[in-house]
Every structure is written in C-alpha cells, then in structure tokens.
Amino acid sequence: MLLLFLLLFISFSQAIERDTITPAQPLTGNETLISSDGKFALGFFKPVNSNNSYVGLWYNKISERTIVWVANRKDPVTTSTGTLSISNNGSLLITDQNSTVVWSSGVANVTNPVAQLLNTGNLVVREDEGNDGNYAWQGFDYPTDTLIAGMKVGVDFVKGLNRTMTAWTSDSDPSPSQYYVTMDIHGDPELVLCAGSKKVYRTGPWNGYRYSGIPGTLTYAGFNFSFINNKQEITYSFNTNLSVLSKLTVNQSGIVQRSLWVEGSGIWNVIWYAPMDQCDNIEPCGPFAACNPNNSPVCDCIQGFTPKSPEKWFYRDASDGCVRKTQLDCKNGTDGFLVIPYTKLADTSNATVDTSLSLDECRTHCLKNCTCTAYAPADVRNGGSGCITWTNELRDIRVFTNSAYGQELYVRLAAADLGTATLQYFLSTICR
Q1: Per-residue pLDDT, 215
Q2: Please, which domain of life does this record's source organism belong to (predicted)?
C-alpha cells in the first residue's frame, strides 16, 4: 500500500509540474505549466477586479504573483473556464468553455508539435523529437509590457518583427494602452518611449557600454547588457546572474522602470525610472540649447549661441531654442569645435553613423562638410571610435554633472565664439 501511495504521489506530482503541452494534453482550468527549474509558471489568471481570463507568465518562486507576459491580452476568455491547446499543425489556441477560439498564435507548420515553457520563461513551439533551439514560434517574439532576462526589444529584419513593450490599459485590463517602448532605428538607433505617435522620452544612442542617457547602468552589479546592431537585427536585451531577479516595465502612467526583487522584503524595488525629471522629456529647451536639471532655469544656450526669442526666454519659454551668434566660415577653414562633456547626445534620428572612422578622422570628416554641425564618437570605449555626425539643428541635448555619465559632444563653432564664456542669459537680463 505504501509503495502504491508513493507511485501515485509521484505520478500526480509529475502531472501537475509539467512544462509541455501536446495535442493530446492541453492546459485547462487551474492547471499550470512549470519550467523544469521551477522558476516560471504559465497558466490562466484573472487580473484584479476583472472576470476575464488570460494566459499569462509569472515567476513561480516569489511571493508576489508578477505577470510578465500575456498571450491573449486583446482577446480575453469571458466564460468561466478556458483551455490552452496546440493543434496538429503547431498552432497554439485559447478557447472558452464553448470551444470557441478566442486567440491563436498562427500556423507553425510543425509535424509533431509540442509547446514547452523553457527555463528562461519563453513559451515555444517546436518539434517533439528534440530541442535544438529552432522554434517554429516563441512568446519572446511578442513582449507585453515587461522585458525579462533573455527577452529582446527591437527589430528583427530576418523574421520581420518589431518587438515592442506596450503598457497595460489598467491593472484590470492587459490590453495595449497608448504607451509603448520601441527601437528607433533611424540614424544611430536608440530606445524611445511613445504616447501614441508622440515621443515622450529617449534613451540616447548606445555608446559601447550603455545608452548615453541612462547614466546609472554602470553601477548595476550582476547584469550583462547587450545591444546588437547589424543587418539581421537591431535589438537590446539583458541578462543577470542567478542571484539577481530584474525586470524592465512600461506602465499605464507612461513610466519606464527597472525593478529588482528583494526576497527578504518581498517587494519589487524600483532602481531606475524615466522620465525622471524635466530634462528627460523630449526637447524641453529647443534646438542648440542644453538642459541641466541641476540648474535654475534648466535651459541654457550652448556656448556661441543666443536665444532665438529673447522675450519668450525671459519668461522661461525656451521652446524656440537658440541661434548662432556668428555664422560658420567653412570656406576659409577657421571653424573649430566646442567640447560639451557628460551629455546625452542630441537626437540622432537624422544623424549619420560611420563606424569605420577613428575619432580624429571623424573631426576631419565633419570639418570638410560645410553642413556638419557636430560630431561624436559612436563608441566611447578605448578612447573613442566610430563617427556620428549631425548636419541639422542639435535637438534634445541633456548634460550631466558627473564625469562618469553621458559622453562628449563636439559642436561646431565659428572661431570668434570658441573662446567666449558660457552664456548666462537669464542672469544678465534679470540684473539689468
């Protein structure tokens, strides 16, 4: 009898803690898939104050159920129960209690399909014969509002995918809201937070170590950040060591935040968020002006420039930005460069990038082009390499006060303006 009990217990445990779905064994009711290492769980859940059901992914071993991915975020199950199954052609299906299909992953064309929850949290569809890493479909290709370790945000040119993070509409409704994080692949690529068609925040371009507008990244212990920019993909991702549990989320208030799980306290601790201050917002100071949140007022014209609309500037409206004091003299070759340290580089969506040039070659290249207004290294490692050049207005410049933050921006000026002191327009105007 004891042996029979043990066999039944083992059989029951294996039935509960499975990580796969087959055409003959769907996921129904209160069943869950558990990754083989026990880290992730996947099953049906109901958001707070909602009667709708969704298939979601959450961390299995932490006290607070944290949903990090939703399959059918726009297509809930409105009946009392639902089923997640896989068809003979490899299509994942979510059906209600009336067997009506409410969501489908699409045909995967797999001969002997199986869906498996991997230890990374990725739900994949593959051939049953083996797991060689070639997946016919994977949930990581369709992020919800959260980026977890190993998941990518950005563009996959081979698959034709643009992986974005889109906030829930509310705590009770995971359908997409107006806020989303996407990769702007124009010029020098960077991540941007959008509200509909409007840019709200941008990270600045990747400089070899980090995004130039996220200064605290280098202080993170246990993280490995990855930025890939080639013909196959332009993506960002991160990984952590086993002792660190972290997630990057965009919420319905339009805030992007990175959190760490604190086991002893049982809470998610937010260690970074954006927009963080006035200077994180897109272009608070207009063209050829820099924003420094430690100054009052926060906007100041770059050396060699003066407010375009002095009256507006006096009333703290810097939206028109600044214009040159002295026009450039490209013909006679007398122009030079002002070095602005510790910056989140100006908007690079219309900039040109040449990774083959050295920093000295970049300077020469800019001087030879009479329309070039500034340059910067594309990679700050080992003294700087690669070349970013601007041929239009410099917009959305932010400066930091810490030498470990941001990077150097070289702004082209006429010789007459290279030796002048930094403009303090507000002070001189008020004192008169």
Answers
A1: 80
A2: Eukaryota
Extents of the domains making up the chain:
19-140, 143-276, 279-431
207 closest CA partner among 412, 388, 396, 420: 388
- Non-local (6+) Cβ contacts of 338 within 8 A are 302, 303, 304, 410, 411, 412, 413, 417, 418
Task: Report, as an integer, the average pLDDT of 229-243.
Answer: 94
Closest CA to 120 of 138, 104, 132, 145: 138
Average pLDDT, the chain: 91
Instruction: Summarize pLDDT for 21-35 with one digit per residue, the tens.
Output: 999 999 998 999 999
143-276, superfamily in CATH?
Answer: Bulb-type lectin domain (2.90.10.10)
- Specify the length of the chain in residues: 432
Contact 258, 248 (CB under 8 A): yes
Q: What digits encode the pLDDT tens for the residues 205-233?
A: 999 999 999 987 877 888 999 999 999 99
Q: Give, as one character, the DSSP assignment of residue 379.
A: B
Give the CATH class of 19-140.
mainly beta
Can you read off the two tokens belonging to residue 86?
Answer: 């896989």
Number of C-beta neighbours around residue 138 at 10 A: 16
* β pairing state of 267-274 and 256-262: antiparallel
Give bridge partners of residue 227 from the DSSP assignment. 236
